[in-house]
Amino acid sequence: MTRTLQTAWGTFNGYNIPFQACHLITEYSDVPCNYGTKKSQLEKIWPQVDFSIVPEVWWNENESDTEIATRAKRFREWLFRQPETCMAIVSHAGFLHELLQEQFKNCELKRINWIHRSRKQAKGL
């Protein structure tokens, strides 16, 4: 999550936008360098970020492909419950590939227009 926070802050610092950490969109926890930092430590380093939905220990060492797919599904479900109509999602290429079935280069920015069926139904589309 630290690398993601560094990228998000480097990209969006200076804009008047809230920063919300989400443990569901982190890199695969398949090797020790991808294991996380406890929430309490991250809160000290990043006081401007809202960590309210992040558990103290949020990573799963040695995730299986099934667990990663489940995490992507849980993030989609969380995302579609949010009231915002426009968000910037900063994550890792591996997770974004699982989430969107698209390839991402390092530090690549993409605009994704993603409308959930419940929002279409609510608008009568």
What general form does the structure show? globular
Give the biggest sheet: 2 strands, parallel
Helix count equals: 5
Low-confidence stretches: 120-125
Return the string of H and E elements: HEHEHHH
**Gap from first CA to last CA:** 37 Å
- The fraction of residues in strands falls at under 5%
| Strand numbers in spatial order across the main sheet | 1-2
What's the SSE blueprint?
Layout (H helix, E strand, L loop, with lengths): L1 H11 L6 E2 L18 H7 L3 E2 L14 H16 L12 H8 L16 H6 L3
Characterise this structure.
The chain has helices spanning 2-12, 39-45, 65-80, 93-100, 117-122; strands spanning 19-20, 49-50. It has 125 residues and is mainly alpha-helical. Strands 1-2 form a two-stranded parallel sheet. It is globular. The model is unreliable at 120-125 (pLDDT under 50).
Question: What features would you highlight for this structure?
Answer:
globular; two-stranded parallel ribbon; mainly alpha; disordered C terminus; 125 residues; 5 helices
